[in-house]
Amino acid sequence: MKRLLPHPGLTAMLLLIWMLMLNSFSMGGLLLGAFFAVLIPVYTAAFWPDRPAMRWELPLLRFVLLVIRDIIVANFHVARLILFRRNRDLRPGWLAIPLELHSAEAITLLAGTISLTPGTVSVDISTDGRHLLVHALDVADVNAEIAHIKARYERRLLEIFR
Amino acid sequence: MTVTVIADAVIAGLLLLGGGFALIGSWGLAKLPSLMSRLHGPTKATTLGVGSCLVASVVYFPVHGGVWTAHELLITLFLFITAPISANLIAKAYLHGCHTAPGEQSMMAEGMPDAAENGADWATFGYDDAEEDPLSVPTGAGGKDPSA
């Protein structure tokens, strides 16, 4: 079973994307999709040796919903900044976020989340992988913003990747 | 009949919202003072701007006699995967710009924090002197190869 499905999450995702691409349900399409969804993880497993253990169910779903909600809220916030704040009143700043996450996949997800929420863009990671460099458009208190990002996103990612 | 009217109102609202955010994003790109600040404009246009146009499209086709398509969901997914990467590459190019002229005062990197107390540098700068394997990066000791 482990050899046939080395990465069940990837298999499920490939099959789902395949079916969404087809855009109409047919048995042949499902079978062909399942064929590729099983074969591709088997043949690519060797390229991805140290996969982190990940919980695919409720915590991940809740994290995705939270991020979508935050994207919408932050969009309105940044729109207000652009429209009604004079340039010289903006307080752009750099944040160096100390990371508790270790796996590359988890840090990538955190960096992507930070970039997707408007107002913050993740820029770089330190060579030892322990700090993330983030640029913020308007930040009043650097330490409070770092604590906010850590409490809101990193804590939830720590629950997902363990 | 009324369902169509309500759906049309929703579609129009979503299109207005999406167009509005794309406009504000572009306005931010033109108005904001520095490169790093400007980067925040386009991220907004891709997320909520394109997102609500795609949701409008999801609603429009079934209501007006077309087939329901899932392709908009996929477009959203692919956009959300690729948008942070392009923003990250622009930011990294900016960091490289800060680093090119060692002699003169760099005005771009104003207020940028150091990576850490332990001597590790930001990854953009950490590997310029050696031909070491960049894939072995994150676990290495600060990227300074003693044999280099």
UniProtKB/TrEMBL annotation, chain A:
The keyword Membrane applies. GO terms for cellular component: plasma membrane. It is found in: Cell membrane. InterPro entries: Cation_antiport_E. The keyword Cell membrane applies. It holds the Pfam family MNHE. It is a multi-pass membrane protein. The chain crosses the membrane at residues 12-40, 60-83. One of its GO terms (molecular function) is monoatomic cation transmembrane transporter activity. Keywords: Cell membrane, Membrane, Transmembrane, Transmembrane helix. Belongs to the CPA3 antiporters (TC 2.A.63) subunit E family. This is Na(+)/H(+) antiporter subunit E. It comes from Sphingomonas dokdonensis.
From TrEMBL, chain B:
Pfam families: PhaG_MnhG_YufB. Keywords: Membrane, Transmembrane, Transmembrane helix. GO terms for molecular function: sodium:proton antiporter activity. Residues 126-148 are annotated as: Disordered. The keyword Transmembrane helix applies. InterPro entries: PhaG_MnhG_YufB (IPR005133). It comes from the Bacteria. The keyword Membrane applies. The chain crosses the membrane at residues 6-30, 42-61, 73-91. This is Na(+)/H(+) antiporter subunit G.
